[in-house]
Input
Amino acid sequence: MRLLLTAAVVAMSVMTAQAQSAGVPGEAAPGVKGIGLTPVQKKLIYENTSGERQQRVPEDQVSLGAPIPDSLMLNEMPVHVKDEIGVLRDFKFAVVQGARSVLIVDPAKRRIVDIVTRDEGMK
Output
Protein backbone atom coordinates (compact mmCIF):
# COMPACT_ATOMS: atom_id res chain seq x y z
CA MET A 1 0.00 0.00 0.00
CA ARG A 2 2.84 2.37 0.88
CA LEU A 3 4.57 1.66 -2.44
CA LEU A 4 1.34 2.36 -4.31
CA LEU A 5 0.90 5.67 -2.49
CA THR A 6 4.51 6.68 -3.26
CA ALA A 7 4.04 5.82 -6.94
CA ALA A 8 0.87 7.91 -7.07
CA VAL A 9 2.62 10.92 -5.51
CA VAL A 10 5.52 10.65 -7.98
CA ALA A 11 3.12 10.36 -10.93
CA MET A 12 1.18 13.43 -9.77
CA SER A 13 4.42 15.40 -9.39
CA VAL A 14 5.47 14.53 -12.94
CA MET A 15 2.06 15.45 -14.35
CA THR A 16 2.11 18.77 -12.46
CA ALA A 17 5.58 19.62 -13.79
CA GLN A 18 4.49 18.80 -17.35
CA ALA A 19 1.36 20.93 -17.00
CA GLN A 20 3.41 23.84 -15.68
CA SER A 21 5.82 23.73 -18.58
CA ALA A 22 3.00 24.05 -21.13
CA GLY A 23 1.48 27.50 -20.90
CA VAL A 24 0.13 30.44 -22.78
CA PRO A 25 2.87 32.62 -24.28
CA GLY A 26 3.72 35.53 -22.03
CA GLU A 27 1.93 34.03 -19.04
CA ALA A 28 3.31 32.19 -16.08
CA ALA A 29 2.79 28.49 -15.76
CA PRO A 30 0.52 27.65 -12.82
CA GLY A 31 2.43 28.06 -9.57
CA VAL A 32 5.23 30.11 -11.19
CA LYS A 33 5.51 33.72 -10.03
CA GLY A 34 7.77 36.55 -11.01
CA ILE A 35 10.27 38.08 -8.62
CA GLY A 36 7.78 40.55 -7.17
CA LEU A 37 8.59 43.73 -9.06
CA THR A 38 6.39 46.76 -8.40
CA PRO A 39 4.90 48.84 -11.25
CA VAL A 40 7.45 51.62 -10.51
CA GLN A 41 10.33 49.12 -10.70
CA LYS A 42 9.00 47.67 -13.96
CA LYS A 43 8.84 51.15 -15.46
CA LEU A 44 12.45 51.83 -14.39
CA ILE A 45 13.59 48.53 -15.91
CA TYR A 46 11.76 49.15 -19.19
CA GLU A 47 13.02 52.73 -19.51
CA ASN A 48 16.63 51.65 -18.96
CA THR A 49 16.70 48.44 -21.03
CA SER A 50 14.18 48.63 -23.88
CA GLY A 51 16.62 50.52 -26.12
CA GLU A 52 18.93 47.51 -26.34
CA ARG A 53 19.10 45.30 -29.44
CA GLN A 54 15.87 43.37 -29.93
CA GLN A 55 16.08 39.61 -30.37
CA ARG A 56 13.75 37.08 -31.88
CA VAL A 57 12.28 34.55 -29.47
CA PRO A 58 9.45 32.18 -30.41
CA GLU A 59 6.28 33.30 -28.59
CA ASP A 60 5.73 29.86 -27.13
CA GLN A 61 9.07 30.21 -25.30
CA VAL A 62 8.23 33.48 -23.55
CA SER A 63 6.68 32.64 -20.20
CA LEU A 64 7.74 32.80 -16.58
CA GLY A 65 9.87 29.86 -15.61
CA ALA A 66 10.57 28.89 -19.22
CA PRO A 67 14.12 28.12 -20.30
CA ILE A 68 15.56 30.53 -22.83
CA PRO A 69 17.11 29.40 -26.11
CA ASP A 70 20.90 29.08 -26.18
CA SER A 71 20.92 31.53 -29.09
CA LEU A 72 19.51 34.33 -26.92
CA MET A 73 22.24 36.78 -25.92
CA LEU A 74 21.83 38.18 -22.42
CA ASN A 75 22.68 41.75 -21.44
CA GLU A 76 24.05 42.95 -18.12
CA MET A 77 21.49 44.80 -16.06
CA PRO A 78 22.35 48.54 -16.02
CA VAL A 79 24.19 49.61 -12.85
CA HIS A 80 21.56 52.28 -12.12
CA VAL A 81 18.80 49.65 -12.21
CA LYS A 82 20.75 47.23 -9.99
CA ASP A 83 21.40 50.06 -7.52
CA GLU A 84 17.69 50.91 -7.36
CA ILE A 85 16.41 47.30 -7.38
CA GLY A 86 18.85 45.14 -5.43
CA VAL A 87 17.10 41.86 -6.29
CA LEU A 88 18.23 42.32 -9.91
CA ARG A 89 21.92 42.22 -8.98
CA ASP A 90 22.41 38.67 -10.25
CA PHE A 91 20.00 38.75 -13.19
CA LYS A 92 20.47 39.65 -16.84
CA PHE A 93 17.96 40.69 -19.49
CA ALA A 94 17.01 40.43 -23.15
CA VAL A 95 14.60 42.54 -25.21
CA VAL A 96 12.13 40.56 -27.29
CA GLN A 97 11.44 41.77 -30.82
CA GLY A 98 7.86 42.51 -31.77
CA ALA A 99 6.28 42.16 -28.33
CA ARG A 100 8.75 44.73 -27.00
CA SER A 101 9.02 42.85 -23.74
CA VAL A 102 12.05 42.77 -21.49
CA LEU A 103 12.85 39.30 -20.18
CA ILE A 104 14.53 39.18 -16.78
CA VAL A 105 16.66 36.02 -16.77
CA ASP A 106 18.52 33.99 -14.17
CA PRO A 107 21.77 33.43 -16.12
CA ALA A 108 22.82 30.42 -14.05
CA LYS A 109 19.63 28.49 -14.82
CA ARG A 110 18.89 30.30 -18.13
CA ARG A 111 15.25 30.63 -17.12
CA ILE A 112 12.89 33.61 -17.31
CA VAL A 113 12.21 34.93 -13.80
CA ASP A 114 10.08 37.93 -14.80
CA ILE A 115 8.75 39.72 -17.87
CA VAL A 116 8.29 43.48 -18.21
CA THR A 117 5.90 44.34 -21.02
CA ARG A 118 5.76 47.59 -22.95
CA ASP A 119 2.42 48.43 -21.31
CA GLU A 120 3.94 48.01 -17.85
CA GLY A 121 6.97 50.07 -18.80
CA MET A 122 4.93 52.95 -20.16
CA LYS A 123 2.61 53.43 -17.14
